[in-house]
Amino acid sequence: MSMHDLHKNNKLPKHVKIVEVGPRDGLQNEPLNIPASLKVELIERLVACGLSYIEATSFVSPKKIPQLADSHEVIQQLKRKSGVTYAALVPNLHGLENAIATDIKEIGFFTTVSETFCQKNINCSIAESLQRLKDMLPLANANNINIRAYISCVLGCPYEGKIDHQHTAKLAKQLIDLGCYEVSLGDTIGVGTPGEVQDLLQKTMLNVPLPQLAVHFHDTYGQALANIFAALQMGISTVDSSVAGLGGCPYAKGASGNVATEDVVYMLNGLGIETGVDLTKLSEVGSWISAKLGHGTRSKAGKALSGE
Ligand code: HMG
Ligand code: MG
Questions:
Q1: Is 153 an active-site residue?
Q2: How many domains does the chain contain in total?
Q3: Tell me: the pLDDT tens digits for 5-48?
């Protein structure tokens, strides 16, 4: 079978947009005291690999995530390259004001489909989190801020277990109706399997057009690449991942790293799907940042390519 037939039969996209979340999802879960200059170097090196969307940091309570308390400094120090989106994770108006002060133009708003996780992570109910988003809209619109949204715990919650996919589908539509341009479906604790991914997408696609959906997999049970392939077969073409497989949420017990960007790019290269990313360079960045953080890379492709 030719690659063309494979694409036709499986409805695989020709191009995948990678949302690199390592500097945010990755570094929020590492020990303290990573200097801002190292974070800046990481972001700039990721851009040099061809990644065009970087979630660079978050504007959240420094008491909750002290690892990213230097977000202002990081964004200020960055030499931004045109054509690249530098985003920040923001949960409320206070965070949006701080992000705007650094001239951020793109934010990731985050909520979840689990009431218990919502309380633990952002100290409010799901409905209150949507109200926080509504409170942000006038300022966001006045400053031409693009809002991407995350829904966490879509394939399982550390506190509530199984999650009803209809609830996620409904919440995704609410987020789009409020003006978010895309919803990233997060398997925060990495428990989902491909059949569940396809069921979730089938239900969510009835509410939100596919081009406005993305997937965000953590790899706790080693299912992330299979889940991404299942999502690609459904027509998804935006995938979140993290260099060297860094990542995790301190408020989601048992969450391990995100799927590694190197592994995703290796798989996509094999499928003939374009990403614009230089895999050799990226695996060097993955090994470099892992060494700086005091552990080896968690990317299998990265390990193989760098001979680690
Ligand atoms: P709260 O305690 O309800 O907020 O926190 P509050 O409005 O009552 O304020 C309490 C204090 O926080 C006040 O300061 C505020 O000024 C300050 P104090 O008077 O005590 O000195 N504050 C802020 N400071 C900085 N930035 C802000 C901000 N807002 C209030 N934006 C809040 C609510 C949401 C702020 C808090 O619970 C929080 O920061 N949570 C963040 C948790 C987090 O970042 N988790 C990790 C990211 S989510 C994730 O990783 C999942 C994802 O990857 C997808 C997936 O994997 O599924 C996205
Ligand atoms: Mg995450």
A1: no
A2: 1
A3: 555 556 899 999 999 999 999 999 888 789 999 999 999 999 99
Contact 193, 223 (CB under 8 A): yes
What global pTM score does this model have? 0.96
* Minimal-distance CA residue to ligand 1 atom 22: 61
Mutation to probe ligand 1, out of 21, 25, 60, 110 (largest number of atoms < 8 A from CB) = 60
Secondary structure class of 263 (helix, strand, coil): helix
- Structural domain of 92: 3-306
Tell me the CATH number at 42.
Answer: 3.20.20.70
Ligand 1 atom with the shortest distance to the CA of 121:
42
81 Cα–ligand 1 center, Å: 29
Query: What is the CA(104)–ligand 2 centre distance, in A?
Result: 20
Rounded to an integer, what distance in angstroms lies between the CA atom of residue 170 and that of residue 184? 14
pLDDT at 308: 72
- Closest atom of ligand 1 to CA, residue 258: 56
* Confidence at residue 31, expressed as pLDDT on a 0 to 100 scale: 81
Contact by Cβ (8 Å): 191, 156:
yes
Token pair belonging to 278:
């230089």
- Over range 188-212, report the average pLDDT: 98
